[in-house]
TrEMBL record:
Protein name as annotated: Carbon monoxide dehydrogenase large chain CoxL
Gene3D superfamilies from the UniProt entry: Aldehyde oxidase/xanthine dehydrogenase, a/b hammerhead (3.90.1170.50), Aldehyde oxidase/xanthine dehydrogenase, molybdopterin binding domain (3.30.365.10)
Name of the gene encoding the protein in the UniProt record: coxL1
Organism of provenance: Planktomarina temperata RCA23
Swiss-Prot/TrEMBL keywords: Molybdenum, Oxidoreductase
GO molecular function: iron ion binding; oxidoreductase activity
Upper lineage: Bacteria, Pseudomonadati, Pseudomonadota, Alphaproteobacteria, Rhodobacterales
Broad EC category: oxidoreductase
Amino acid sequence: MSEGIGARVLRKEDKRFITGKGRYTDDIIEANQAYAAFVRSPHAHARIVSLDTSAALAMEGVETVLTGPELVADGIGNIICGWGITSKDGTPMNMGAWSALATEKVRYVGDAVAIVVADSKSQAKLAAEAVVVTYEELPVVVGSVEALAPGAPQLHDNAPGNLIFDWEIGDLAPTDAALASAAHVTEMEITNNRLAPNPMEPRSAIATFNEAEDHYTLYTTSQNPHVARLVLSAFYNVAPEHKLRVIAPDVGGGFGSKIYIYPEEIACLWASMKSGCSVKWTSDRTEAFLTDAHGRDHVSTAKIGFDSDGKIVGLKVNTKANLGAYMSLFSSAVPTYLYATLLSGQYDIANIYCDVQAVYTNTVPVDAYRGAGRPEACYVVERIMETAAREMGMDPAELRSKNFVRSFPHQTPVIMAYDSGDFDANLKQAQEAADVAGFAARKAEAASRGKLRGMGYSNYIEACGIAPSAAVGSLGAGVGLWESAEVRVNPVGTIEILTGSHSHGQGHETTFAQIVSERFDLPTENIQIVHGDTDKVQFGMGTYGSRSGAVGMSAIVKAMDKVEAKVKKIAAHVLEAGEDDIVIEGGAVKVAGTDKQMLWHEVGLAAYTAHNIPEGMEPGLKESAFYDPTNFTFPAGCYICEVEVDPETGVTEVVQFVASDDFGTIINPMIVEGQVHGGIAQGIGQAMLENVVYDAAGQQLSASYMDYAMPRADDLPNYSVHHASTTCPGNPLGMKGCGEAGAIGSPPAVINAITDAIGNNNLSMPATPSAVWAALQDVSQKLAAE
Ligand code: MCN
């Protein structure tokens, strides 16, 4: 079938998206619709002295105003972090309490203290301003290094020194010994800047309590509605699981920021029960900057040692991870198991040791953002490899290649067992596409125009298809991360696929249909993907960690295996042939080598009319499956960036960006290329433009698009995207995830290119014109002094 695996099928969902017919949470209006606004702390750290809601409650159109103490009195539970981390001394992590509405203290600007429900959005906002809160301001700390310093302001009583955990991985003594004996050691301080996620659709929720049926419905901008339902019922005590329906309709991007259950969802559900209204809240853009979980924010020191032949002998890293004011759902996993387990990069390194201090600060909670831990790991490894090559006077590609892992499976010293890959193939393909041989001439030509031209590599690897329940369970995850699917063949032969994965921009309605089209040789228009509704789909773990292809689709394959077996039994019975002789092709189920056949829909009809199926067979044609892989998938690749810097101004242009990726089997090359383009745009954004900036008082100075520089089309080059794939042995389709690769691999390539151009390694992200100009001045001063 031309629409099967490998076909560039246009996205089925785009018709409604690009004609403005998408149905997002804020588009939905319930009967008895009321609107919520939150009263938020203007201080980064303060004690709540008093809170007076009487003036707000007296205002016209106000249904209710509810506060933290009332929420606690109603037994609503604290927000939890679902991944336990044990410190190196064996103690569990120090988790401070996070109430959906603050009770005694506020710990970041934007912390919610009350919810106001009124008949219109503007009335709710006006009434929120009428809530009088008296605060006693407390000292503030925003940086992780400062928060760990003696005498720093304390956020949570049960986290002395603001330390959430002090975790380690790898072996310290052999790593120290290897570094001590190394012929060359490179040492660097590496900062990974804090980012705001910025999905196009801001977060939104509508909660409806139906008193007559004692039932709750929550529409929400979630990447994992079933997990939301589970957590809301099991931990927050908002509604019993069987009486709560969670629907994530069209969701306009998430990039990780919509995995978690936020205070607003809890408060809206509770406020609906209290007020009898359907309660809707939609974040505005400033609220999004102030309250959506941020990403990254690592400060690291790294040391890498080489023998005299350029082979790596050891890598040692210390990282301070800023987790903000509270721990959100996956926050503890991001700087630990999603980060340090990838520090081996594409290289065969015998000794690795990393320790991570996770820290509370008076900032927005930090959790997964596209790549989640893996961009941070890739940045450390690829920045230090490039710097080491320069220090040793070696070609950076040659140094990398000398250390590549070449035999699989490969066990790293930091847990991961890489299953497949061909790093030489990606390097070679990228070098050819980037015309590395012609770089010297291009550099000379740029110099003739007064420009500095530089080239930078990044050879990334990531672990995605986040799943293996046994693995993640033993590493502290509260739940297994399998996926489920149901394949329903209707009596007329059309097919519905119910999946626990959730699409919020990744094109699942198309790619998931393609694998069904491939298997049953049917057009994708006859195949419907159903997702995002806990009343329709049995259960699911949702979408993050580029897992929907490798895990979600694998569950569909398992369910299709069962459907195919039944289809063959029915056809063999009707056509009086052996099951082994039955083939499915061209919209029919045939006896191979004969003209005997049933049309596909005739098999569907036979299954449901039931008088024509084998004796003892259950009627119907629908099967479900759960899939739990035994390993992650390991996408990898080589990115090469070329930049031109104007030395007068520091203004830098990315003039070429080449990607060679290994995503295993590719279902839809067009969608995969789109994913890579989007990821690289975010990576270039991080490297050159984006930065969340706090002042010393904990106020965000970058909470609008006037100050937070999102990448725009004219900041980005035309990408040159290629694939050199190896098959993933760990899932039936041989796929590796592609959704995060671009954001993981690109930042070090950009910074390596700029530092190459300016001749100064000491440059942090974002490489704004002023930062690049300042780094150039350092070089000139050094030269003048010599
Ligand atoms: N695919 C394919 N062949 C492969 C791998 C994937 O055709 N070898 C297809 C898949 O079928 C799917 C898409 O590519 O249609 C992405 O698949 P996958 O890599 O499995 O990632 P997920 O679908 O699980 O998406 C999650 C991933 C993550 S973790 C973030 S963050 C992210 C991303 O995807 N957020 C996104 N891409 C995004 N794209 C958009 N538009 N919006 C987001 O919020």
